[in-house]
Every structure is written in C-alpha cells, then in structure tokens.
Specification:
Blueprint: H1 2-28, E1 35-42, H2 53-69, E2 73-79, E3 83-90, H3 93-112, E4 124-127, H4 131-147, H5 176-184, H6 190-195, H7 199-220, H8 238-248, H9 259-273, H10 277-283, H11 288-296
Antiparallel strand pairs: 1-3, 1-4, 2-3
Helix pairs in contact: 2-3, 2-5, 4-7, 10-11
Length: about 300
C-alpha cells in the first residue's frame, strides 16, 4: 500500500513537472505576429462549421473587415466544410484572428440558436520566412480541395481564391455565387502574379504540387499499393451531403429537430446519399458511436 502511494505520488509529481515544462516552453515561444503567415482554424472537435453558402460568404466578409481593421492582406484562402486556410501578410495576426473568430462565432450561434464553442482553440499560424515557403503555402491552400478528394481540379471548387487569381476567368461573371465571393473579399495577387502569368502556369504548379504530395504519401506507406485517401471508392463529399439536406429536406434548421426527427433525417440522408457514419456525425454534431447505433438498431 505504501509502495502504491509512493508510485502515485511520484507519477503525480512527474506529471506536474511535464505540465510546468510545457507552460515554460510555451511562454518562451510566443506566437509570431508579423510576416507572411499561414493561418488555419478548425471547427471544434473537427465538426462541420459551414452549412450553407451564406455561412461561407459571411466568413469572407468578416475576413475583409478584419483585414481593414488590422492592416492585413490575404494572398490566398480556401473554405472547407470544417476548417479554413488563409495566407496572410500581417503585423498582428492574433488581433486579426480574435476579432474574426469571436465575431463570426457570435453571428453563427445566433443564426442557429446555439451556444457551443464553434472553433478549436488556439488557432494555428505558421510564419513563412522564405519566398519558397510562401509559394508552397499558397499552393497547399489552393490544392486543399484536391487533397480532400472533393475535386480533381481547383476550378471545380468555388470556395477558394483560385478563381480570383487572374482576371480572365471564364465563369467569374456567370456564376452568381462567385460574383458574391468576389464582392465579399479582396485578395492580394501581387505575389502570385510575380510567379505565374496565366491560369495555365498556375494549374501546372498545382498539379506538380499534387503529384509531389502523393509521392510522399505513397513512400510513407512503405510500398503499399493501397492509399485510403486516394482510392477509387466513390464517396460523396461532406459539403454535397449538406447541400442535399438543404435542398431536399424542406428543413430550415436541422439543429432544432427533436431526437426522433433527427434520427429519421439521419436515416433518410444515409439512404439517399450513402454518406459515411463519420460524415453524419460531423454534420449533426453527434458521436460516431451514436450514428452507428442508429443503423445497428434498424430491423
């Protein structure tokens, strides 16, 4: 019994030392505020944040206002279902992020009658100290929908700055959503234009970036022939599942459904879209086990 108490005490002291050491290290490494910064924020617990086009447009508008308030420029952006990437030129990234995320969370929770924490904290930021790092960061952002298997070419995904890179974009003035995106946010293309003179050159760079990423991922599998992220299995993208719910289910806000209504909707969505349990869990803010139990209990 004495030995157990000693082990418990030693374990507690060791844990306390680790925590204190982590706190000290964090104090010694303050967040860099100035430079060319890759900013990323995810939904809390990786849950889906952006449920419709209005959610995304509002976020872009608030990005634009935050840029004006804190002397910041956006070089690239992409809005995914549950996270956002921004490439910034700024001198006060924390002030920019705090104003943006707090204000948007308040707007979002009021819209959906929620009170939960919307974004994971702290947000992530990485300073790009060289021109090469800065360029790779922008290509990473523009290639993100391809990595997520949402599309095979960035032109197919509307919620990125790819469509704002050059003036001669064919769909720029024909797509009403893209028009709204252009009105909502300003993108500084100075750096892009010094490296590429057309979409053909930019497309080639993104393709090279994709091929290099896949090569690295394949090498990490030690010669395995199967890579889950790039298999041929047809799985509907999460944003398409949300779009299906909004268009087909005559429901203004599925967060307000009672338990029975929610369960019926989950079953119907699964039957009509073949959405995975993980996708349904993130969309409906429920646990994976709860979603799986619904379908295990079906007759």
């Amino acid at each position: 019994m004495v030995g157990f108490e000693n082990k418990s005490t030693n374990s507690s002291q060791s844990s306390s030392k680790r925590i204190n050491r982590t706190i000290i290290q964090n104090k010694q490494r303050p967040r860099l505020q100035e430079g060319y910064i890759h900013f990323c924020v995810r939904g809390n617990c990786r849950k889906v944040v952006f449920l419709d086009d209005d959610d995304k447009i509002e976020f872009l508008k608030r990005c634009n206002i935050a840029c004006e308030l804190y002397a910041t420029k956006i070089e690239a952006f992409v809005i995914m279902d549950n996270h956002v990437h921004l490439q910034l030129i700024t001198s006060q990234v924390t002030n920019f992020a705090t104003w943006l995320l707090r204000g948007y969370s308040f707007w979002y929770n009021r819209k959906y009658s929620l009170s939960d924490k919307l974004f994971r904290t702290p947000f992530m930021s990485y300073c790009k100290f060289s021109e090469e790092w800065r360029l790779k960061s922008i290509l990473y952002i523009l290639e993100n929908p391809i990595k997520a298997s949402i599309c095979i070419h960035p032109i197919e995904y509307i919620w990125s700055s790819y469509h704002l890179a050059f003036k001669n974009h064919g769909d720029k003035y024909n797509n009403p959503v893209l028009k709204e995106i252009i009105k909502s946010i300003k993108v500084d293309n100075t750096f892009i234009s010094t490296h590429f003179i057309s979409y053909n050159e930019l497309d080639s760079a993104i393709e090279d970036f994709t091929n290099h990423r896949k090569e690295i991922e394949n090498n990490s599998l030690n010669g395995a022939s199967y890579c889950p992220e790039f298999n041929s299995r047809a799985r509907i993208a999460t944003h398409e599942v949300i779009k299906y719910i909004n268009q087909s289910m005559d429901i203004k806000d599925f967060h307000t459904l009672n338990r029975k209504e929610q369960k019926e909707l989950i079953i119907k969505v699964r039957q009509n879209t073949r959405a995975s349990y993980s996708q349904l869990a993130t969309i409906f803010n429920e646990s994976y086990e709860y979603i799986r139990r619904i379908f295990r209990e079906l007759p």
